[in-house]
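dumping the sequnces here before i forget
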Amino acid sequence: MIFEFDLSTIFVNKACRHFTAFFFFNLSPFSFNGLFIIISLPASPKSKPATKMRSSVLRSVKTLAKPAGARGYSSESVPDRKVAVLGAAGGIGQPLALLMKLNPLVSRLALYDIANTPGVAADVGHINTRSEVAGYMGNDQLGQALEDSDVVIIPAGVPRKPGMTRDDLFNINAGIVKDLCSAIAKYCPNAIVNMISNPVNSTVPIAAEVFKKAGTYNEKKLFGVTTLDVVRAKTFYAGKANVNVAEVNVPVVGGHAGITILPLFSQATPKANLADEDIKALTKRTQDGGTEVVEAKAGKGSATLSMAYAGAIFADACLKGLNGVPDVVECSFVQSTVTELPFFASKVRLGKNGVEEVLGLGPLSDFEQEGLEKLKPELKASIEKGVKFANA
Ligand SMILES: NC(=O)C1=CN([C@@H]2O[C@H](COP(=O)(O)OP(=O)(O)OC[C@H]3O[C@@H](n4cnc5c(N)ncnc54)[C@H](O)[C@@H]3O)[C@@H](O)[C@H]2O)C=CC1
Ligand SMILES: O=C([O-])CC(=O)C(=O)O
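..and the predicted 3d for all of it:
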């Protein structure tokens, strides 16, 4: 459970006449994951100082057991950060709003949509966590929603139905993204933008062109959210390799549609000697993960809950980077020189300015090298389609 404190064990170690406390924090997905502290102190029942120390430790345990916000120091020690969600009343937007409300790094949460945001904002706003929540509805309120934002997350637009490709969403979503990005350029030109709306392979280049035209483009602050591909690759790999999913890491590179999604299982950790056939099947399942959900939902949309989770993980990484947390690395579709394509998803180090470093691909297997060459023409065409649309 998010932000839940699990006090694993407190016991008196009689043999050593020491009072020992073990703490295990599991604050994932936003905070510590697996911090283990051991405190050991004299436990003689007759010693007054020891009794005092014991009650003081227990007091600290009780305090630490509360979420950061309730401990009262989060707003002083964590910088104020405003996050805006555009498309906040949608299938992704609502659970994403919930998860961002639970994130102690957020101090203001702006929920924007063309409809239904007052209800979502009232609902989420009752949750007793740090951020203030405000709902904004309709174009007239878009500027207010965006003003002062540090991070803008965009899950606005139509989702797929069975039989459609992500590119089939282009005609509707390209225009939505273009308009929203024009407003971002006007009202919060320095914000980090997390683009979720599909087709990501085209909507990110559209956003870049809109920002270039407005004179606000900062390639370090524009991200296509591909975290769901990583989330899926981790889940599927853990299942096949029979390893603890919480320990799994798998980079996913390329883009975010079909064969442009290239999981690098040769770099997956913990290592497992999977057969080539298994790697091929895992690759295909990761590439078709979105379609698997679209078909299972049978006309009622695409991935929303897993996407909200993935979007929250990525936004949290951006906020941590902004706040100066070191070594924050996530895969994302960004402006890139990793290949000859102008945009490409790979591991990215996040920092105070957004992208600190776009990391290379690392060693690829023959199968992955082949996949990389195969995806380039499709990804190139999707990027060019976005650029052309934005400049038409
Ligand atoms: N990057 C990724 O990994 C993923 C991307 N997606 C994409 O995310 C998008 C949203 O998906 P869902 O939330 O399921 O769709 P949805 O239809 O449930 O929600 C979309 C929301 O966008 C709003 N909207 C439409 N035009 C708008 C505008 N001009 N300004 C603000 N809001 C606007 C709608 O009112 C609606 O509330 C789709 O394009 C989908 O393909 C979905 C899953 C994964
Ligand atoms: O498949 C879709 O249309 C939505 C999406 O991008 C995903 O689930 O990866």
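Residues 86-87, 89-93, 113-115, 155-160, 169, 173, 176, 179-180, 196-198, 200, 225, 228, 256, 301-304, 307 surround NAI (ligand 1) (CB under 6 Å).
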